[in-house]
Amino acid sequence: MNRARHGRLFLLPVAVAAVFALLAGCTAASNEPVSTPTPTPAPGLLVGHLYVKGGLDPKTYTYAAKLTATAIYTSTPAVYNFEAGKDGAFRIELPPGIYMVTSVPIGNESGGQVDPHEVTIRSGGTYTLETTSIHP
Description:
The chain is built from 1 helix and 8 strands. It is an alpha+beta fold. The protein folds into 2 domains: about 1-35; about 45-135, Immunoglobulin-like (Sandwich), CATH 2.60.40. The strands form 2 sheets. Strands 1, 2, 5 and 8 form a 4-stranded mixed sheet that branches. The longest helix is centred in the N-terminal third of the chain and has 29 residues, at about 1-30. The radius of gyration is 33 Å and the shape is rod-shaped. The N and C termini lie far apart (about 115 Å).
């Protein structure tokens, strides 16, 4: 009986050592750096209106047009095409960056080609672009 008790006492330190070895292994594994993917920034919003005025009629009008936003100052070129309705309004979500925006009237619309505009789109922000083309 004394021998059985001695055997159990011997097993206790072995069991304790095994538990510590397991805990040490778990701790070492959790100290390794975890790679986290870089989150994609939220898009920004470009909104605005196109206007035309001049000529014999002194009023200001809106017009439909095809617009292009071209990413500039970037190693990855990107071009986004969108349209302004007859009310001249446009709206597009774009990734953050700097863009050159151009427009050309659609069909028989009386709008002129507007000079290019450089716009900066920020993550989660809104950039408003109001342009007027003037006819002599």
